[in-house]
Amino acid sequence: MKTLILCSPKGGSGKTTISRNITVAAALDGVNVASIDLDPQGTLSNWWHRRPTDIVTDIPHYVFAIEESPTWLEEIGQHDLLVIDTPPSIYMWPEAVKALLLKSDHVLIPTQPTVDDMEPAVHWMDVVIQCGVTGEFVLNKCLRRGRSISEAKLYLSGYGPVCPIELTQREDVHRAAANGFGVLEIPKHPAAEEFQILWNHIRQRMRLPQVIVQDITGRDLAVNRSARVA
Ligand SMILES: Nc1ncnc2c1ncn2[C@@H]1O[C@H](COP(=O)(O)OP(=O)(O)OP(=O)(O)O)[C@@H](O)[C@H]1O
Ligand SMILES: [Mg+2]
């Protein structure tokens, strides 16, 4: 079982948005993935409860108190991957959060490409590195025009690895979430390609095996990654 943590002290950076879309991408890829909500705001849980009951991408979901981390890890059934969403108030529980980081396999630190947003993110990267965990910054809510993306990458790369795919600011990202979907569950969603590439990158980075299925002739096929809605 591998654990991916979405973590940053900066509110609104995209932790929950990336958590749910990565979880959906993994489930569509045939990975036995579960989502975990450690945020008392319950944004990820609210989204999970909005999911249609007949949806084919059934995702087990757990809610735990962050201050009890990581004792609850033992209560979770067997999954290939846990995607853990955290609150912005992580400095309130330094010991519990550090103990959780020590048990994790990879950390994503989402940040918008502005200095106000990146400064807290780079301080958090120091904590992640001190815990001996691999982490990456993920640039989110990027505007495609202008120099801010390349300048942000240059700045962040001085403090830690930067994910090679950045996510664009798009109004339709939260529209999908409003109905309990990930963008990959909506056919031809404009953000689907970015989240698919992000997931492909994470799968390789975390060395999660590609799920292979066989067609009726016995030929190996990678699991169909196209959008599937029940
Ligand atoms: N790429 C994007 N394009 C447009 N809107 C986005 C994008 N990413 C996130 N948002 C929106 O920004 C807001 C904050 O995102 P999100 O809830 O994922 O951040 P968070 O880091 O989990 O916040 P918190 O720290 O409060 O838990 C939400 O309204 C979300 O829909
Ligand atoms: Mg959140």
Kindly describe this structure.
The chain is of the alpha/beta class and 230 residues long. It has one domain: Rossmann fold (3-Layer(aba) Sandwich), CATH 3.40.50.300. Helix content is 34%, strand content 15%. The chain contains seven helices and eight strands; from the N terminus they run βαβαββαβαβαααββ. A six-stranded parallel sheet has the order 3-2-4-1-5-6, with helices on both faces. β2 (33-37), α2 (43-50) and β3 (61-63) form a beta-alpha-beta unit. α1 crosses α7 (192-205). The chain is globular and about 50 Å long. Residues 223-230 have low confidence and may be disordered. Adenosine-5'-triphosphate binds next to α1 and α6. Residues 15-16, 39, 43, 85 line the site of magnesium ion.
Total number of strands: 8
**Average of the residue pLDDT scores:** 92
**Main beta sheet:** 6 strands, parallel
Percent of residues in beta strands? 15-25%
Global Rg: 17 Å
- Helix-strand topology string: EHEHEEHEHEHHHEE
What structural category characterises the helix and strand content?
alpha/beta
Might you state the CATH topology name?
A: Rossmann fold
> Termini distance?
28 Å
- Unreliable sequence segments: 223-230
The order of strands across the largest sheet is: 3-2-4-1-5-6
CATH architecture: 3-Layer(aba) Sandwich
Number of domains: 1
Proportion in helices: 25-40%
Small molecules (ligands, ions, cofactors) in the structure: adenosine-5'-triphosphate, magnesium ion
- Principal-axes geometry comes out as globular
- Please tally the helical runs, counting DSSP H or I stretches of 4 or more residues: 7
- The CATH homologous superfamily name equals P-loop containing nucleotide triphosphate hydrolases
